[in-house]
Amino acid sequence: MRIPFIAGNWKMYKTVAEAVKYVKELRALVKDVEGVEIVLAPPFTALHAAAEAARNSKVGIAAQDVYWEREGAFTGEVSASMIREAGAAYVILGHSERRSLFGETDTTVNQKVAAAFAAGLVPIACIGETLDERERNETFDLLDRQIRHGLGALTSDQIGQLVIAYEPVWAIGTGRNATAAQAGEAHGHIRKRLHQWFGPDAAELCHVIYGGSVKPENIADLIAQPDVDGALVGGASLDVRRFLEIVMRSRGRDAARAD
Ligand code: PGA
Predict the structure, then answer these.
(1) What's the angle, vertex CA 87, arms to CA 83 and CA 90, rounded to 5?
(2) How confident is the model over 117-136, as pLDDT tens digits?
């Protein structure tokens, strides 16, 4: 049984002091909360301090990117083992902002996902179509390509440990979330492919979460979809009370599905 997975992607927001204050507040608010995995992804500068503040709590910490080499002359880059040592247990990979602004491709995702696993990090691998691709009816082909090329080298065991974030690019930061039906359809497709290509156990264990304008007002509908296992939350994760609201509402998943 996959428990809901809710991750806050802070992007390039929050200083060290702001990150620590937030994490301390959140850890107290969720100390008795069961049945949901909670993760925050601060910028690199706040990673270690946030991980220290989250130690022995219900809050896990993720990096927002990683480089695939172990060490070397790669100015500006950070390795998976450095991220692990800083206290993070997860890493976001292939976010659409990395793809569109910084030249990330399925090939680099493939390298990064392998490096993350080798260092003991859980990858949160992002896939999703642009508005053009959706309007040309290419969504499923694009998702197939991103899974095959970005994640195709993984073993079934690794797929079972992976988190895939389906983030339609047109829904990110736009206030325009996919409808529950659109998300459900895409997630169902992804789950079907995982089953075909990696087997039933991998498909059953892999978390497929939705991202793109998730907020307290829409999380219940999204998570009620059978293949939506949680959310990657950008803007609405910056405010601890709004993020908490999303976390709490995601726990109503089983009740919502039974309606
Ligand atoms: P958003 O961002 O919630 O602000 O749309 C989601 C993401 O980019 O992960």
Answers:
(1) 65
(2) 999 999 999 999 999 999 99
Burial 101-115, CB ≥16 within 10 A → b, else e = eeebebebbbbbbbb
Measure 160 CA to ligand 1 centroid, in angstroms.
Answer: 24
Q: What is the pLDDT of residues 62-89, one digit of tens each?
A: 999 999 999 999 999 999 999 999 999 9
Could you tell me which CATH number the domain at 5-258 has?
3.20.20.70
Give the per-residue pLDDT at 259.
Answer: 52
- Report d(CA 162, CA 160) in Å as an integer: 6
Pocket of ligand 1 (CB under 6 A): 9, 167, 172-173, 211-214, 232-236
Nearest CA to ligand 1 atom 7: 234
Q: Which atom of ligand 1 is nearest to the CA of 174?
A: 5
* This model's pTM is above 0.90: yes
The two three-digit tokens of residue 92, written as one number: 């976001």
One-character DSSP codes across 96-139: HHHHHHH---HHHHHHHHHHHHHTTPEEEEEE---HHHHHTT-H
- 169 vs 95: CA distance, rounded Å: 9
Question: DSSP letter string over 196-235?
Answer: HHH-HHHHHH-EEEEESS--TTTHHHHHTSTT--EEEESG
Q: Which residues of 60-89 are buried (b: 16+ CB within 10 A; e: fewer)?
A: bbbbbbbbbeeeeeeeeebbbbbbbebbbb
**Dist CA 2 CA 14 (whole Å):** 30
Euclidean distance between CA atoms 18 and 63, whole angstroms: 17
Whether residue 91 contacts residue 72, with contact meaning beta carbons closer than 8 Å, is answered with no
